[in-house]
Design brief:
Length: about 190
């Protein structure tokens, strides 16, 4: 009788340990799903500077701490792409490589504008292998443009005038901003 009681207690303990492991595994999966099921679809940005208005010259800081002016005059014909991204934004992690690919294809000059702590943004740069793409941080530019949702994409011409501005979640949305800017048609 005592042996049966000991065996049942051992089995009960093993079952509890197994249940704890299952709960931890499910909690991990819920976290992964939370990242994957981020808000997708068209979102309306809040109003800040409008398309056609000139961006004031603002000196941002690179992740390394060097000054980086935004809104200054660029070489003739240059179009600067400013993707606003966050280190903890799952949609940004998915859209950023797409935006950089489109910028490369269309001959745009990308400058990433990060929201968050510098160590987290450096980790994002390393994780996505962003290489030599300028990465600036600071709240000034986001406040001037009233960027409240990420990822937001802003295109500037060689005079610092805003050509396009919108929240983007897909390649189609990124390319939809470009036809009026570069003269290319958007991919379907």
């Amino acid at each position: 009788m005592m042996t049966l009681l000991i065996v049942s207690q051992v089995l009960l303990f093993a079952a509890i340990v197994a249940l704890v492991l299952v709960v931890l595994a499910l909690a991990r999966q819920i976290g992964i799903l939370h990242e994957r099921i981020a808000p997708i679809g068209q979102q309306q940005p809040q109003r800040g500077l409008e398309v056609g208005q000139a961006l004031p010259r603002i000196t941002m800081r690179t992740l390394e701490g060097a000054p980086f002016p935004v809104g200054e005059r660029l070489a003739a014909g240059t179009i600067r792409m400013l993707p606003f991204v966050g280190a903890d934004c799952p949609v940004c992690k998915r859209v950023l490589p797409i935006a950089l690919d489109v910028a490369h294809e269309r001959g745009l000059e990308p400058v990433l504008v990060g929201d968050g702590a510098v160590p987290e943004l450096e980790a994002l740069r390393a994780r996505l292998a962003l290489g030599e793409v300028p990465f600036v941080t600071g709240v000034e530019l986001g406040l001037v443009l009233q960027v409240s949702r990420l990822p937001t994409l802003v295109l500037l011409d060689d005079n610092g005038t805003i050509l396009a501005r919108d929240v983007v979640n897909t390649r189609r949305q990124v390319e939809a901003l470009l036809p009026t800017v570069t003269g290319h048609s958007a991919a379907a």
